Protein backbone atom coordinates (compact mmCIF):
# COMPACT_ATOMS: atom_id res chain seq x y z
CA UNK A 1 0.00 0.00 0.00
CA UNK A 2 2.84 2.38 0.79
CA UNK A 3 4.01 2.45 -2.82
CA UNK A 4 0.98 4.42 -3.97
CA UNK A 5 -0.28 6.27 -0.91
CA UNK A 6 0.27 9.78 0.36
CA UNK A 7 0.48 10.60 4.05
CA UNK A 8 -0.85 13.91 5.34
CA UNK A 9 -0.55 15.42 8.79
CA UNK A 10 -3.99 16.49 9.98
CA UNK A 11 -5.67 18.14 12.95
CA UNK A 12 -9.13 17.11 14.08
CA UNK A 13 -10.82 20.47 14.42
CA UNK A 14 -13.04 19.84 17.42
CA UNK A 15 -10.36 18.32 19.68
CA UNK A 16 -7.24 19.79 17.99
CA UNK A 17 -5.83 16.28 18.08
CA UNK A 18 -3.11 15.61 15.51
CA UNK A 19 -3.28 12.47 13.36
CA UNK A 20 -1.69 11.09 10.20
CA UNK A 21 -3.95 10.23 7.28
CA UNK A 22 -3.00 7.80 4.52
CA UNK A 23 -4.73 8.92 1.31
CA UNK A 24 -4.95 6.02 -1.12
CA UNK A 25 -6.29 6.47 -4.68
CA UNK A 26 -8.79 3.72 -5.42
CA UNK A 27 -7.42 3.41 -8.95
CA UNK A 28 -4.13 2.29 -7.44
CA UNK A 29 -5.96 -0.44 -5.50
CA UNK A 30 -7.37 -2.16 -8.58
CA UNK A 31 -6.23 -5.77 -8.45
CA UNK A 32 -4.76 -5.22 -4.98
CA UNK A 33 -7.98 -5.10 -2.97
CA UNK A 34 -6.96 -8.15 -0.94
CA UNK A 35 -3.77 -6.43 0.21
CA UNK A 36 -5.52 -3.38 1.64
CA UNK A 37 -8.31 -5.50 3.13
CA UNK A 38 -5.66 -7.61 4.85
CA UNK A 39 -3.86 -4.58 6.29
CA UNK A 40 -7.11 -3.07 7.56
CA UNK A 41 -8.17 -6.41 9.06
CA UNK A 42 -4.86 -6.63 10.91
CA UNK A 43 -4.91 -3.02 12.13
CA UNK A 44 -8.48 -3.34 13.39
CA UNK A 45 -7.46 -6.21 15.66
CA UNK A 46 -4.49 -4.63 17.39
CA UNK A 47 -4.13 -2.14 20.22
CA UNK A 48 -0.71 -1.92 21.84
CA UNK A 49 1.29 1.03 23.21
CA UNK A 50 4.21 0.26 20.89
CA UNK A 51 2.19 -0.24 17.69
CA UNK A 52 0.89 2.60 15.51
CA UNK A 53 -2.89 2.28 15.65
CA UNK A 54 -5.59 2.71 13.03
CA UNK A 55 -8.16 5.14 14.43
CA UNK A 56 -10.73 5.37 11.65
CA UNK A 57 -11.44 4.72 7.99
CA UNK A 58 -13.17 6.94 5.44
CA UNK A 59 -13.80 6.59 1.75
CA UNK A 60 -14.91 8.78 -1.12
CA UNK A 61 -15.68 7.85 -4.70
CA UNK A 62 -12.01 8.17 -5.61
CA UNK A 63 -10.00 7.66 -2.39
CA UNK A 64 -9.69 5.54 0.72
CA UNK A 65 -8.52 7.32 3.88
CA UNK A 66 -6.90 5.62 6.87
CA UNK A 67 -6.64 7.82 9.96
CA UNK A 68 -3.57 6.68 11.89
CA UNK A 69 -2.10 7.57 15.26
CA UNK A 70 0.52 10.27 14.72
CA UNK A 71 4.14 9.44 15.50
CA UNK A 72 6.47 12.41 15.13
CA UNK A 73 9.75 11.39 16.76
CA UNK A 74 11.51 10.23 13.62
CA UNK A 75 13.18 7.01 12.55
CA UNK A 76 15.24 4.76 14.79
CA UNK A 77 18.64 5.28 13.13
CA UNK A 78 18.26 9.06 12.92
CA UNK A 79 17.76 9.30 16.68
CA UNK A 80 20.75 7.08 17.44
CA UNK A 81 23.01 9.19 15.23
CA UNK A 82 21.76 12.38 16.90
CA UNK A 83 22.48 11.06 20.40
CA UNK A 84 25.72 11.94 22.13
CA UNK A 85 25.61 8.90 24.38
CA UNK A 86 24.43 5.42 23.42
CA UNK A 87 25.01 2.08 25.11
CA UNK A 88 24.16 -1.60 24.95
CA UNK A 89 21.58 -0.93 27.62
CA UNK A 90 19.87 1.60 25.35
CA UNK A 91 19.77 -1.01 22.59
CA UNK A 92 18.46 -3.62 25.02
CA UNK A 93 15.63 -1.34 26.13
CA UNK A 94 14.67 -0.67 22.50
CA UNK A 95 14.63 -4.37 21.64
CA UNK A 96 12.63 -5.08 24.81
CA UNK A 97 9.86 -2.78 23.55
CA UNK A 98 9.94 -4.34 20.08
CA UNK A 99 9.81 -7.87 21.50
CA UNK A 100 6.90 -6.98 23.75
CA UNK A 101 4.92 -5.58 20.80
CA UNK A 102 5.74 -8.47 18.47
CA UNK A 103 4.88 -11.01 21.18
CA UNK A 104 1.49 -9.29 21.40
CA UNK A 105 1.08 -9.64 17.63
CA UNK A 106 2.09 -13.29 17.71
CA UNK A 107 -0.31 -14.00 20.57
CA UNK A 108 -3.01 -12.46 18.34
CA UNK A 109 -1.99 -14.78 15.51
CA UNK A 110 -0.45 -11.95 13.46
CA UNK A 111 2.92 -12.11 11.70
CA UNK A 112 4.37 -8.74 10.67
CA UNK A 113 6.74 -10.12 7.98
CA UNK A 114 8.53 -6.82 7.32
CA UNK A 115 10.24 -5.78 10.54
CA UNK A 116 13.12 -3.41 9.76
CA UNK A 117 14.55 -0.17 11.16
CA UNK A 118 12.58 1.99 8.71
CA UNK A 119 9.36 0.65 10.24
CA UNK A 120 10.45 1.55 13.78
CA UNK A 121 9.51 5.13 14.66
CA UNK A 122 9.75 7.16 17.84
CA UNK A 123 6.41 8.31 19.20
CA UNK A 124 7.67 11.82 20.00
CA UNK A 125 10.82 13.93 20.14
CA UNK A 126 11.06 13.41 23.91
CA UNK A 127 14.36 11.93 25.06
CA UNK A 128 12.57 9.00 26.70
CA UNK A 129 10.06 8.48 23.88
CA UNK A 130 8.82 4.96 23.26
CA UNK A 131 9.42 3.16 19.96
CA UNK A 132 6.51 2.29 17.66
CA UNK A 133 6.10 -0.46 15.06
CA UNK A 134 4.47 0.69 11.82
CA UNK A 135 3.58 -0.53 8.31
CA UNK A 136 1.49 -3.69 8.31
CA UNK A 137 1.23 -3.90 4.52
CA UNK A 138 2.87 -7.35 4.40
CA UNK A 139 1.43 -8.68 7.65
CA UNK A 140 -0.55 -11.88 7.76
CA UNK A 141 -3.12 -13.35 10.11
CA UNK A 142 -2.27 -17.00 10.72
CA UNK A 143 -4.96 -19.43 9.75
CA UNK A 144 -6.55 -17.14 7.15
CA UNK A 145 -6.00 -18.78 3.80
CA UNK A 146 -2.96 -20.64 2.54
CA UNK A 147 0.13 -21.60 4.49
CA UNK A 148 2.64 -18.76 4.55
CA UNK A 149 5.26 -19.39 1.88
CA UNK A 150 5.29 -16.15 -0.11
CA UNK A 151 8.76 -14.65 -0.40
CA UNK A 152 8.18 -11.17 0.98
CA UNK A 153 9.93 -8.67 3.20
CA UNK A 154 13.06 -6.57 2.77
CA UNK A 155 16.37 -8.13 1.60
CA UNK A 156 18.81 -8.24 4.47
CA UNK A 157 16.11 -8.72 7.11
CA UNK A 158 14.27 -11.79 5.79
CA UNK A 159 14.74 -15.19 7.40
CA UNK A 160 16.45 -18.09 5.56
CA UNK A 161 13.22 -20.09 5.30
CA UNK A 162 11.51 -17.20 3.49
CA UNK A 163 14.25 -17.05 0.85
CA UNK A 164 14.13 -20.84 0.55
CA UNK A 165 10.40 -20.46 -0.20
CA UNK A 166 9.56 -23.01 2.46
CA UNK A 167 6.43 -22.77 4.60
CA UNK A 168 7.23 -20.45 7.46
CA UNK A 169 5.78 -19.15 10.71
CA UNK A 170 5.94 -16.22 13.13
CA UNK A 171 9.59 -17.21 13.70
CA UNK A 172 10.47 -15.02 10.69
CA UNK A 173 9.76 -11.95 12.82
CA UNK A 174 12.17 -13.16 15.50
CA UNK A 175 14.93 -13.52 12.91
CA UNK A 176 14.31 -9.92 11.81
CA UNK A 177 14.53 -8.72 15.42
CA UNK A 178 17.89 -10.50 15.63
CA UNK A 179 19.12 -8.63 12.55
CA UNK A 180 17.91 -5.31 14.00
CA UNK A 181 19.64 -6.10 17.31
CA UNK A 182 22.87 -6.82 15.45
CA UNK A 183 22.75 -3.47 13.63
CA UNK A 184 21.91 -1.57 16.82
CA UNK A 185 25.17 -2.78 18.37
CA UNK A 186 27.58 -2.18 15.49
CA UNK A 187 25.90 0.08 12.94
CA UNK A 188 26.19 -2.25 9.94
CA UNK A 189 24.12 -5.22 8.70
CA UNK A 190 25.14 -8.84 9.36
CA UNK A 191 24.63 -9.69 5.68
CA UNK A 192 25.74 -7.54 2.80
CA UNK A 193 26.70 -7.92 -0.83
CA UNK A 194 26.11 -5.76 -3.91
CA UNK A 195 25.02 -8.95 -5.65
CA UNK A 196 21.58 -10.07 -4.44
CA UNK A 197 22.29 -13.73 -5.21
CA UNK A 198 25.38 -13.66 -3.00
CA UNK A 199 23.48 -11.76 -0.29
CA UNK A 200 20.74 -14.39 -0.30
CA UNK A 201 23.34 -17.15 -0.17
CA UNK A 202 24.81 -15.61 3.00
CA UNK A 203 21.37 -15.43 4.59
CA UNK A 204 20.41 -18.97 3.55
CA UNK A 205 23.56 -20.26 5.25
CA UNK A 206 23.14 -17.87 8.21
CA UNK A 207 26.73 -16.75 7.68
CA UNK A 208 27.51 -13.78 9.90
CA UNK A 209 30.38 -12.73 12.15
CA UNK A 210 31.02 -10.49 15.13
CA UNK A 211 33.89 -8.64 13.48
CA UNK A 212 36.76 -6.99 15.31
CA UNK A 213 37.17 -4.17 16.26
CA UNK A 214 33.46 -3.30 16.04
CA UNK A 215 32.33 -6.04 18.42
CA UNK A 216 35.30 -6.00 20.80
CA UNK A 217 33.47 -3.90 23.39
CA UNK A 218 30.14 -5.71 23.08
CA UNK A 219 29.20 -8.19 25.80
CA UNK A 220 29.11 -11.95 25.27
CA UNK A 221 25.53 -11.82 26.54
CA UNK A 222 24.49 -9.55 23.66
CA UNK A 223 26.16 -11.86 21.14
CA UNK A 224 24.46 -14.90 22.71
CA UNK A 225 21.10 -13.14 22.49
CA UNK A 226 21.61 -12.39 18.78
CA UNK A 227 22.73 -15.96 18.04
CA UNK A 228 19.52 -17.34 19.54
CA UNK A 229 17.40 -15.08 17.31
CA UNK A 230 19.51 -15.43 14.16
CA UNK A 231 19.33 -19.21 14.38
CA UNK A 232 19.01 -20.81 10.94
CA UNK A 233 16.58 -23.50 12.12
CA UNK A 234 13.25 -21.78 12.90
CA UNK A 235 12.33 -24.60 15.29
CA UNK A 236 15.42 -23.85 17.40
CA UNK A 237 15.13 -20.08 17.07
CA UNK A 238 14.05 -18.13 20.14
CA UNK A 239 10.42 -17.09 20.32
CA UNK A 240 9.60 -13.58 21.53
CA UNK A 241 8.69 -15.03 24.92
CA UNK A 242 12.05 -16.78 25.22
CA UNK A 243 13.91 -13.67 24.03
CA UNK A 244 12.17 -11.57 26.68
CA UNK A 245 13.57 -13.94 29.32
CA UNK A 246 17.17 -13.62 28.13
CA UNK A 247 19.44 -11.87 30.68
CA UNK A 248 20.48 -9.27 28.08
CA UNK A 249 16.84 -8.16 28.00
CA UNK A 250 15.46 -8.83 31.48
CA UNK A 251 18.70 -8.93 33.48
CA UNK A 252 21.68 -6.64 33.96
CA UNK A 253 24.17 -8.05 31.45
CA UNK A 254 23.79 -5.21 28.92
CA UNK A 255 26.83 -2.95 29.29
CA UNK A 256 26.72 0.78 30.01
CA UNK A 257 29.82 1.66 27.98
CA UNK A 258 29.29 4.46 25.44
CA UNK A 259 29.43 2.96 21.93
CA UNK A 260 27.87 5.96 20.17
CA UNK A 261 30.93 7.05 18.20
CA UNK A 262 31.53 3.71 16.48
CA UNK A 263 27.86 2.79 15.98
CA UNK A 264 26.76 6.18 14.63
CA UNK A 265 29.75 6.31 12.26
CA UNK A 266 28.81 2.93 10.81
CA UNK A 267 25.11 3.83 10.55
CA UNK A 268 25.96 6.96 8.57
CA UNK A 269 28.28 4.94 6.35
CA UNK A 270 25.98 1.98 5.71
CA UNK A 271 22.45 3.39 5.68
CA UNK A 272 21.04 6.07 3.41
CA UNK A 273 19.59 9.29 4.77
CA UNK A 274 16.09 8.60 6.00
CA UNK A 275 13.08 9.28 3.82
CA UNK A 276 11.54 11.38 6.57
CA UNK A 277 14.44 13.81 6.41
CA UNK A 278 14.41 13.90 2.62
CA UNK A 279 10.71 14.67 2.65
CA UNK A 280 8.89 17.32 4.65
CA UNK A 281 9.80 17.29 8.33
CA UNK A 282 6.74 16.10 10.27
CA UNK A 283 8.10 17.34 13.55
CA UNK A 284 8.45 20.88 12.20
CA UNK A 285 4.82 20.88 11.12
CA UNK A 286 3.70 19.60 14.52
CA UNK A 287 5.71 22.36 16.19
CA UNK A 288 4.07 25.04 14.05
CA UNK A 289 0.58 23.62 14.60
CA UNK A 290 1.20 23.56 18.33
CA UNK A 291 2.26 27.21 18.22
CA UNK A 292 -1.06 28.07 16.65
CA UNK A 293 -2.93 26.16 19.35
CA UNK A 294 -0.98 27.80 22.19
CA UNK A 295 -1.89 31.30 21.03
CA UNK A 296 0.33 34.33 20.68
CA UNK A 297 3.31 35.49 22.68
CA UNK A 298 3.25 38.67 24.80
CA UNK A 299 4.51 40.64 21.82
CA UNK A 300 1.95 39.07 19.53
CA UNK A 301 2.68 37.14 16.33
CA UNK A 302 4.78 38.82 13.69
CA UNK A 303 2.83 39.52 10.52
CA UNK A 304 3.97 38.44 7.08
CA UNK A 305 3.13 40.54 4.04
CA UNK A 306 0.30 38.11 3.33
CA UNK A 307 -1.43 39.42 6.47
CA UNK A 308 -1.18 35.99 8.11
CA UNK A 309 0.80 35.35 11.32
CA UNK A 310 4.32 34.23 10.36
CA UNK A 311 3.91 30.74 11.81
CA UNK A 312 0.74 30.23 9.81
CA UNK A 313 2.40 31.48 6.66
CA UNK A 314 4.97 28.69 6.99
CA UNK A 315 2.16 26.19 7.11
CA UNK A 316 0.52 27.79 4.11
CA UNK A 317 3.75 27.33 2.23
CA UNK A 318 3.88 23.69 3.32
CA UNK A 319 0.26 23.01 2.37
CA UNK A 320 -0.44 20.72 -0.57
CA UNK A 321 -3.52 19.68 -2.47
CA UNK A 322 -5.82 16.85 -1.50
CA UNK A 323 -9.51 16.02 -1.91
CA UNK A 324 -12.38 17.78 -0.16
CA UNK A 325 -15.03 15.20 0.58
CA UNK A 326 -17.73 14.02 2.96
CA UNK A 327 -17.14 10.39 3.88
CA UNK A 328 -18.87 7.62 5.79
CA UNK A 329 -17.31 5.47 8.48
CA UNK A 330 -18.48 3.23 11.29
CA UNK A 331 -19.05 6.20 13.60
CA UNK A 332 -21.20 8.16 11.15
CA UNK A 333 -20.63 10.80 8.50
CA UNK A 334 -17.41 12.76 8.81
CA UNK A 335 -16.15 15.57 6.64
CA UNK A 336 -12.51 15.13 5.72
CA UNK A 337 -11.49 18.49 4.31
CA UNK A 338 -8.21 19.36 2.66
CA UNK A 339 -7.61 22.20 0.21
CA UNK A 340 -4.71 23.66 -1.72
CA UNK A 341 -3.36 25.27 1.45
CA UNK A 342 -3.86 25.30 5.20
CA UNK A 343 -6.24 28.10 6.12
CA UNK A 344 -6.52 29.97 9.44
CA UNK A 345 -10.22 29.11 9.84
CA UNK A 346 -11.28 25.76 8.41
CA UNK A 347 -14.86 25.59 7.15
CA UNK A 348 -16.92 22.45 7.45
CA UNK A 349 -18.41 20.00 9.90
CA UNK A 350 -17.43 19.52 13.52
CA UNK A 351 -15.23 16.50 12.86
CA UNK A 352 -13.34 17.80 9.85
CA UNK A 353 -9.56 17.72 9.55
CA UNK A 354 -7.12 20.29 8.30
CA UNK A 355 -4.07 18.79 6.71
CA UNK A 356 -0.72 19.36 5.08
CA UNK A 357 1.40 16.88 3.17
CA UNK A 358 4.20 15.25 5.13
CA UNK A 359 5.50 12.43 2.98
CA UNK A 360 4.64 10.89 -0.38
CA UNK A 361 5.67 7.28 -0.96
UniProtKB/TrEMBL annotation:
CDD domains: STKc_CaMKI. InterPro entries: Kinase-like_dom_sf, Prot_kinase_dom, Ser/Thr_kinase_AS. SMART domains: S_TKc. The keyword Kinase applies. One of its GO terms (molecular function) is ATP binding. It is an enzyme of class 2 (transferase). Residues 1-249 form the Protein kinase domain. Its EC number is 2.7.11.1. Keywords: ATP-binding, Kinase, Nucleotide-binding, Serine/threonine-protein kinase, Transferase. SUPFAM superfamilies: Protein kinase-like (PK-like). Transmembrane segments: none annotated. This is non-specific serine/threonine protein kinase. It comes from Mastacembelus armatus.
Amino acid sequence: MGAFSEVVLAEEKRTQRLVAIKCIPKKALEGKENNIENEIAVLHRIKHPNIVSLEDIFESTSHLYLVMQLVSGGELFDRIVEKGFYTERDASQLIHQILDAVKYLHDMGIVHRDLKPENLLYYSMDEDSKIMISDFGLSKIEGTGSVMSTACGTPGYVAPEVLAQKPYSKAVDCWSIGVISYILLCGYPPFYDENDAKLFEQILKAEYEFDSPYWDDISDSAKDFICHLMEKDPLKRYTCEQALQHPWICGDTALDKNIHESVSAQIKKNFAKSKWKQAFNATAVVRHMRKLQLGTSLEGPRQHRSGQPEELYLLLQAGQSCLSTTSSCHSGTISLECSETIRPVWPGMQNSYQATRVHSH
